[in-house]
Amino acid sequence: MNIRCLPHLNTKQAWLDFCKREVSSCFTEQPEAMVDFQTTYLMITVLDNNTRHGKQAIKYSLGSRSSLKPAWKFIQACDFNLQIMIDGLAEINFDGNARDNSLLKAHTDLTVRKFFSKDRSIISPGNLGPMMPLTEPPPLWTLQHLSRLLANHQYRDMRTEQLALPNSDPLRVEFRGIPTPGAQEILIGIIHQPELWQIRPHPKNTGRLMILRQGTALCSFEPDFAAPEPKLAQRGTRWASTV
Q1: 239 beta partners
Q2: pTM reported for the whole predicted model
Q3: Which contacts of 198-207 are long-range, i.e. CB under 8 A and separated by 24 or more positions?
Q4: Torsion of the alpha carbons at 113, 114, 119 and 121, rounded to the nearest 10
Q5: How confident is the model over 25-63, as pLDDT tens digits?
Q6: Could you give the residue ranges of the DSSP H alpha helices within 154-213?
Q7: CB distance 238 to 126 below 8 Å
Q8: DSSP E strands, the chain
Q9: Is the Cβ–Cβ distance between 131 and 149 less than 8 Å?
Q10: Region 179-207: what's the mean pLDDT?
Q11: Buried b / exposed e across 17-48, counting CB within 10 Å, b at 16+?
Q12: CB 3.0-4.6 Å disulfide test: which of 13, 36, 123, 160 passes with 25?
């Protein structure tokens, strides 16, 4: 299933356009979230640039079994601004009576639930769509930075860092027979199983970065912040997939 990634849902017109679409789900960039408005319930999954696994995300369900009016009134009361909705929902004490919150008092038929998303495949919109080249080293390296370097071929001297530990020798020695993994192979692995991967500066060479899988060094390379050769123009509309 392909899900559209919209710039925002922070205006009345944006919500009207969204509700006219055949697909009732979308990602939003500002704020980062996934919105699903099916039948009589509004589902909001709160994401951020650090969300790489759907089960990390908080999800809200708002609506009524009998009518979509309570959910729509909630959207109107929040001035059609998704950020206001998320901020207000974050202030609700779900350990007590959620209806005591001023955000919900005017919506007597509105049922509100908070839980963690069960969808493993959801990641934040900041990690979706075209990956732009890096022009300078970031203050702290993340998988998103690594993915952008690999996607734009901004690396030099990729070499293996895999080690073998012979049973008879307590010292770790380089195992020359293990080939260096390909950048595309690593990128696909990061996209599908981000929880297994890490990136950090090389402990013996500050000019290199080391890629680890499940805490074990895999390979290292030198980042190249020069602009890559221009590609064909990207489509203006970004799409994201949860498959």
Answers
A1: 4
A2: 0.55
A3: 198/143, 199/141, 199/142, 199/143, 199/145, 199/146, 200/141, 201/141
A4: 130
A5: 888 888 988 899 878 899 998 886 655 555 667 889 998
A6: 183-192
A7: no
A8: 2-8, 25-30, 33-38, 41-46, 58-63, 111-116, 155-160, 163-164, 173-174, 197-202, 205-213, 216-223, 239-241
A9: no
A10: 86
A11: ebeeeeeebbbbbebbbbbbbeebbbbbbbbe
A12: 36
pLDDT tens digits for 109-167?
A: 788 888 876 655 566 666 555 678 899 999 999 988 998 899 889 999 999 888 654 44
Other beta carbons within 10 Å of 222? 15
Cα–Cα distance for residue pair 187/151, rounded to 1 Å: 7
Q: What is the CB neighbour count within 10 angstroms for residue 87?
A: 13
Residues contacting residue 98 through CB under 8 Å, at least 6 positions apart: 92, 104, 112
User: How far apart (Å, rounded) are the C-alpha atoms in residues 99 and 84?
Assistant: 17
Tally the residues of the chain.
243
- 54: helix, strand or coil: helix
